Amino acid sequence: MGLGLLICISVFSQEDCRLTFSGKVVDEMGAPLKGATIIIDANLFSKVSNDSGEFVINNLCPGKYKVAVQYVGYEPNHFEIILKDTGLYQVIVMLPMISQLDEVVVRAHHAQTEHAHNLATISTKQLAETAGKSLGETLREIPGVNTIQAGPGIFKPVIHGLHSQRILILNYGIRQEGQQWGAEHAPEIDPFIASNIVVIKDATAIKYGTDALGGVIVVNPPELPEKARIGGVFHTVAQSNGRSGTVSGYVEGGIKNHDGWGWRVQGTGKRAGDYHTPDYSLTNTGVKELNFSVATGFHKPDYGFEIFFSRFYTELGILKGTSISNIRDLVVAMNNEPPLYTTSFSYSIDEPRQEVGHNLLKVNAHKKFLKGEGRIQYGYQQNKRKEFDIRMGGLQSIPAMNLMLQTHTFEGEYELEGDKKQLLCIGLTGMAQKNTNIPGTQRIPFIPNFASFSGGAFGVAQFFMNRWKMDAGLRYDFRQYQIKGFDYKNSYFNDALSFGNVSITTGASLTINQKQSLHFSASSAWRPPHVAELYSLGTHQSAASIEYGLLLNDATNEVMKIEDVAFKNEQALKMIGTHQFHGKRFQNEITTYVNFIRNYIYLKPSGITQNIRGVYPYYRYAQTDALFLGMDISSSVSLSEKIKARQNISLIYASNLSGTGNLPFIPPNRFDWSIRFEEPKEFFLKNFFLESKVRLTTKQNNAPRVIPPDQIINANEQGIDLFATDNSIFDFAKAPPTYWLLNLSTGFAVHVGNTKIDFSLAAENLLNHAYREYTNRFRYFADDRGRNFIISAKANF
Amino acid sequence: MRALPFLIIPLVLLGCVEEPVKESTPEMITKVTLTFTSEAGGPDIISSATDPDGDGVQNISSDGVTILEQDKIYNLSITLINELVDPSSPEYNVTHEIEETGDEHLFYFGWTNNIFSIPSGNGNIDNRLDEISYADQDNNGLPIGLTTTWKTTMGTQKGTFRILLKHQPGLKSGTSESTVGETDLAVTFEIEVQ
After folding, report:
1. Cα–Cα distance measured from residue A135 to residue A186, given in angstroms and rounded to the nearest whole number
2. Is the pLDDT of residue A42 over 70?
3. Which of A344, A565, A797, B94 matches a 20 to 30 Å C-alpha distance to A451?
């Protein structure tokens, strides 16, 4: 290629290079695609299509060129052009991506997707096929992404073995701030809001601040329309397991005679009752959800702004059979199958339950200047979480936990475009946050009230050189906490803490040839501790154990100063590389990563305590060094023109380097194999497909040691402290065995006038196999979901 | 650097940390007191188990061996106290709370064989239908167990006396076993009959 460039330069100097290649990029329906990247001869020239999908590339010499057109969620389009003495105009039709192999971030989306090298995308089409599922469950389709579950309805995403405080979720460009410290607190985002979701596997969030030790999840809503044309989507999904119904849709349009203005109104409603396993009902696992969002904006090529508001509200039942107090209750609950309180199907949601509301207001603006583009963004989030437990009589209707988290975020950045070969972006971010226990829970709060203020400054430089794309970034962040709360004996305490550190990232992508590319990045990220890790006090529901924060004294439970404990910030060094092969019939992508985390915070078993309610093991937050290794493989092969076979593999190995036992809840290895028949041509039905998928989840052989709860009770009765000599990590039960599930799906589309309707029918766990998932916290108590039929219809108008 | 004012705005909007409000803790029990009152008169025999720090790490401690006289009838009443609050506070005495929600609560008892002649056996923790002389009732006519009646055995005996309070909302019945529901209290005392 180097030679090719040389030749081109020599041609440049000799001939009249004033030819133009122009055109228009459209989707399969003929609608213009804004922001598609048109690349000529592997980055020799590149352009981004404008609002009407059009582009113009000037100053081309006569000759033969290889053109690649890329757009997120669409199959890349490769072809050749020959320029003679006249220019060329071409309409380029893009087809929606079926595989997730070619995840390309286009320039227009940089504001939301950073300068990442290793990433995976869920396209609009894939989102339609997983419609009705929560965000966490949807993301599980991506190799390298797993979930931590709390029963059949609560899913938290896990990227390369890390979750909660160690990953970052960007909802429409805003850092999602909820009570994510809790393992049973799912992200408060409606997946129907997204047109695509990108998972960045690099440990980098140079633009967004701390915490992205595992990676970043970017939820991208569709671009607002800019022309006066009313359109929309209406989607309805019914599922047999849980007898759930979901209705979602949006209407969008522009304003007549005011090009550039656009608006969208979106909403989702969901109602589900008790899920069931192959053999019994999972009593009290129903869900209610009601979400809506409105957006409006004005866009011209050089400037624009948007205002966005969204509300997410859910009410979730927690499996009633998990309501336990001490460790003896745990023994009983683990032996009860079906769980205690199991009754026949019902839609009612009783205690224990959660009520969560999340409001987001976002305002952003961007303007192009002579030398670059400036962007500013402000977000306000209000997260209200109420958790109701089974409590004494009159207290049942009072939440046992009632928290309100308010977050203001501000981001300002300036992107400086050099001579097309380099890019420099600098910015400032700020976040102010206040977490308040709403009085009246009649219980000592699990975490104290706090306010935090964080700020950061960053710079990222990007270079394009021939077949190379390289970047490097540097960032500094600080976070201050003000804490006020009540300790174990309900006496007041307060403190102020401050943390600060530097993040560095560097990466490179190399286009080897038309078919192959390499991507690599190394990043160092850090995160300040969460208040929950420092000050937690009490029992988590269904945990049958007591948790103490890092700053609580071992012997007295008194709250200590941070100077008095040997605390160090968690710090990750993640190296990740991807090899992509994109042939005509065979595509393959292999990602390998190593993530070394120093001062990794975890819950360490520390002893047994007896109070009036009985015997409890207790855990303290402690620190160790941890290593995560893994590989994500994604491949597909076309067996014929219409039949494609695919596989997705996620392998992960985690090691606790200080030898205090294997880390708990590390996702086991997962293998997905599918075969799909597609008939794109119209004969009777359009876009007919039939897909069969097998998911194999192996046993976690690297799980912590097992101490059954009755062993703890027996030892305690004999006056033996099991953790005095060995306080390595343990689990109450063995990791569940390997299991495999069979899924089937089929669908087709019909056109009624200008409306396209996609129908699909799917069956999950078709063989009704009884299984338990290692990363489901309720695996001690009940099986996972049994067979589920899903019927869905999506109308685009 | 024009962005700087925007960084200050959130601070102004938000202000400082909200002053927390001290919660009452009506569910917290730190002390269980057994009061054995002899039908034949004489001073009450009182024994307590205390948890000094609620959810803290310190273990429960008890007054030592409870000594009862042989072949005597005793009324036992159980008092539940939260010593972490002021005695004048309504949350101090949790016994009322249990009494008011008696239709969701039940005390179970278990003891070393032969400490008592009435009821005989070893209590109803292992089998609900085993005999206990409950002396109180909830709204549905089912026992609660805050007050019970016991007759000690003839001759000297020594053993343990275990008390279990279960919260069984919607599940309490004439046959609900001690494995049903959440545990609100689980304490073991030492008893000697002399």
Report:
1. 9
2. no
3. A565
With CA atoms as reference, report the closest residue to A628 among A592, A581, A590.
A592
B23, A485: Cβ pair inside 8 Å?
no
B-proximal residues of A, 592-621, CB under 8 Å: 607, 609-615, 618
Closest CA of chain A from B26, distance in Å? 7
Does the pLDDT value for residue A344 go beyond 80?
Answer: yes
B181, pLDDT greater than 50: yes
Residue A661 region, left (φ>0) first, then alpha (ψ -120 to 50), else beta?
A: left
What do you get for the CA distance between the two ends of chain A, in Å? 46
Q: Which of residues 1-60 of B touch A (CB under 8 A)?
A: 2-4, 6-7, 9-11, 13-32, 49, 51, 53-60
Contact yes or no for B31 and A612 at CB 8 A: yes
pLDDT in tens, A589-642: 999 999 999 999 998 888 888 888 888 888 889 999 999 999 999 999 999 988
Q: Is the pLDDT of residue B173 over 80?
A: yes
Contact A443 B7 (CB under 8 A): no
Interface of A with B in 620-649 (CB under 8 A): none
pTM of the predicted model as reported, rounded to 2 decimal places? 0.84
Which letter does DSSP use for residue A561 in this model?
A: -
Residue B121 has pLDDT above 60, yes or no: yes
Inform me whether the C-beta atom of residue A719 falls under 8 Å from chain B C-beta atoms. no
Are A390 and A329 in contact by the 8 Å Cβ rule? The answer is no
Q: Does ipTM exceed 0.90?
A: no
Closest to A675 (Cα-Cα) out of A693, A649, A648, A650: A693
CA of A181: how far to CAs of A105, A496, B50, in Å? 30, 20, 33
**What is the C-alpha to C-alpha distance for residues A290 and B63, in angstroms, rounded to an integer?**
55
**Looking at residues A702-715, what average pLDDT do you find?**
92
Q: Which residues of B touch A482 (CB under 8 A)?
A: 16-17
Rounded Cα distance between A498 and A482, Å, is 9
Collapsed DSSP state (helix, strand, coil) of residue A164 = helix
Cβ separation B100–A546 shorter than 8 A: no
Contact yes or no for B24 and A442 at CB 8 A: yes
pLDDT (average), residues A24-49 = 79
Residue B131, Cβ neighbours under 10 Å: how many?
Answer: 13
Q: What is the pLDDT of residues B69-115, one digit of tens each?
A: 999 999 999 999 988 778 888 888 889 888 988 998 999 999 987 89
Helix/strand number for chain A, H first, E second:
8, 40
SS3 A334: helix
**Residue A617 C-beta-side C-alpha neighbours within 13 Å:** 30
Q: Residue A708 and residue A710: Cα distance in Å, rounded?
A: 6
Distances (CA, A) of A362 to A109, A172, A175, A280, A378: 17, 9, 11, 44, 6
B10 and A332 within 8 Å at the Cβ level: the answer is: no
User: Which chain B residues are within 8 Å of A489, Cβ to Cβ?
Assistant: 53-54, 56, 84
pLDDT, tens digit, 9 for 90 and up, residues A125-171:
888 888 889 999 999 999 999 999 988 889 999 999 999 999 999 99
